[in-house]
Amino acid sequence: MPAAAISGTDSGGQRALRVFIIEDNVVLRNIIVDALRDIPSVDILFYADNEISATNWLSSNDGAWDLAVVDLHLRQGSGVGALNWCTTRRPNQRVVVLSGELNEEMRQKCLALRADAVFDKGTEMDAFLGYCKSLTA
After folding, report:
1. For residue 41, what are the CA distances in angstroms to 38, 78, 90, 99?
2. Cα(86)–Cα(91) distance, integer angstroms
3. 38: which of 6, 18, 30, 73 is 20 to 30 A away, CA to CA?
4. What is d(CA 131, CA 1) in angstroms, rounded to the nearest whole number?
5. How far apart are CA 30 and CA 49, in angstroms?
6. Distance between CA atoms of 14 and 5, rounded to whole angstroms?
7. Percentage of residues in the chain having pLDDT higher than 90
8. CA separation (Å) from 125 to 9, 15, 42, 47, 122?
9. Could you give the angle at which helices 26-37 and 125-136 cross, rounded to 10 degrees?
10. Contact (CB, 8 A) for 103 and 87
């Protein structure tokens, strides 16, 4: 499935944190989107559910996003490919990995690919949301 729009714009008048989500599980994606929408000044731009859609959207919207949230395990391809594409991002853009079943080796691989932070979906969702809130301050 290609990348798709899922949100509007910030209603507070200030520039919102523009978020792109790479997640193939619809239920988990909806949970993430709902949690992010509870943070003032967050605008969910688009989502992608596979590596090709993610990298195509990222390359077509180079400066349009502030935060990319990347799941490593996708139905087609891997979030690692999208993370690898993000190594050439602009200095003000952030990339976080939000994935399940992370081990220390995978965390280090993500950080080596310049992920700004790595969070486990099952145990670190509060820390992930705290990180996102800190980007809106």
Report:
1. 9, 29, 21, 24
2. 11
3. 73
4. 28
5. 12
6. 21
7. 82
8. 24, 24, 17, 18, 7
9. 40
10. no
137 pLDDT tier (thresholds 50, 70, 90): confident
Instruction: Count CB-CB contacts under 10 A for residue 43.
Output: 18
Q: Give the integer Cα–Cα distance in Å for 89 and 116.
A: 12
How many distinct structural domains can be found in the chain? 1
Q: Which two tokens stand for residue 44?
A: 């969910």
* CATH code of the domain containing 52: 3.40.50.2300
Range of 130's domain? 4-136
Q: What angle do CA 115, 11, 2 make, to 5 degrees?
A: 50
Q: Please report the pLDDT score of residue 1 as a whole number.
A: 40
The pairing of strands 42-48 and 17-22 is parallel
Beta strands in the chain (DSSP E): 4-5, 17-22, 42-48, 67-70, 94-99, 117-120
Residue with tokens 């939000």: 98
